[in-house]
Amino acid sequence: MSFCVKCGAEGPTYRSLCESCFLQGKVFTTLPDHVDVFQCGHCEDYLLDGKWLSIETREEVAEKATELALQISKDAEPLHVTLHGERIDEANYHVGMTIAMSVEGLDVNEARTTIVRFKNTSCPRCNKLMGNYYEGTLQIRTRDRKMPEDLREEIIERVDKMMQEHTRDNRELFISKVNRLTTTHGGVDVVLSSSAVGKNIAHELADQYAAEVKETAKLVTQKQGKDLYRVTFLVRLPAYRFGDIVRHDGKLHLVGALRANSTKITNLKTSQSLMVSNSDMTSAKVVGRREDILDAVVVAETDREVQVMHPASFKVFDLRKPPKFQRKGDTVKVFQLDEEFYLLPLQG
Ligand SMILES: [Zn+2]
Ligand SMILES: [Zn+2]
């Protein structure tokens, strides 16, 4: 049988003391009288544990802030916490808390209260937004021609989506401005809060559109001993798009898949496909758009030729089949340049 070294009571002991002598005068939790919580007056996010968060109600914020402010002795193992926040006025909330713990195998319960005070501030992201802060500009253009509006909108949408991915890990990222250009060449400027993200997006676009990226950095200021560079990424898309007809090396080709460094093209006469580096494609001239390609009804077909009807003039004429030609359906894709007609080798 063990007994308490302090009062002599017999029974189980905790560090040589009975339960009541062991727990006497001991406190395992502390909570400050006041807990301050900052809320951004612009985006209304709250700063909790070093992070800016969007939280529905102030009761919930007050409870979370109280839980974060609680300190528990390392001898105690917390088992269960209950919180109850109540509004006193708009800026002050009363929070009651109970903490169930295990100390040396004993169940211990404590209750604490505090006042959470809400303070107004401006978060770093809103500071940057309002100061029109920017580090990177994407200048998106098309080589040798005006950027079509549908392409421009498609690109803006892609940039938007990529930004959403990036902001998931870093809320201080944002698009500062989108300028749709009305100049002869058109295109768009997208101004971003981060040049690192600008670089990343510029190269993603290069990948998707076989574009070329040119980077120019300019030191604008030194901020807290750190250099601030503004970087411009000129993303130049080729004049051609997927499905266009181009003249390359004097011969007509259908444009296929576009990659960061190369473009796949297929010769209209020989059906031969090849990968051409984008730098070699800069001299390729667009002679027809995807939307210029006609769907002509097949009237008759032999081994070497198909007889088709022009969809507008209804004239019937024969076209020689390019190698590997395979028809799918009742119509074939035909491209007209000047007086000549070409049967597209790829009919997909
Ligand atoms: Zn005792
Ligand atoms: Zn804010």
Helix/strand order: HEEEEHEEEEHEHEEHEEEEEEHEEEEEE
Indicate the proportion of strand residues.
over 45%
What's the total count of β strands?
23
Shape: elongated
Query: How many helices?
Result: 6
Helicity range of the residues? Answer: 10-25%
The distinct ligands, each listed once, are:
zinc ion
Query: Strand order of the main beta sheet, please?
Result: 4-3-2-8-7-6
Structural category is: alpha+beta
Q: Which residues form runs of ≥5 with pLDDT under 50?
A: none
Any idea how many domains? 3
Write down the Rg: 35 Å
In this structure, how is the largest beta sheet organized? 6 strands, mixed
Round the mean pLDDT to the nearest integer and report it: 92
Distance from N terminus to C terminus (CA atoms, Å) equals 91 Å
Structural features, described:
- There is one protein chain.
- The protein is an alpha+beta fold.
- The chain has 3 domains: 29-124; 132-237; 245-343, no CATH class.
- The chain contains 6 helices and 23 strands.
- It has a 6-stranded mixed beta sheet, with helices on one face. A 5-stranded mixed beta sheet has the order 10-11-9-13-12, with helices on one face.
- A hairpin with a 2-residue loop joins strand 14 and strand 15.
- It is elongated.
- Residues 4, 6-7, 9, 17-18, 21 line the site of one zinc ion.
Features:
six-stranded mixed sheet; five-stranded mixed sheet; 18% helix; 3 domains; alpha+beta; binds zinc ion; single chain; 348 residues
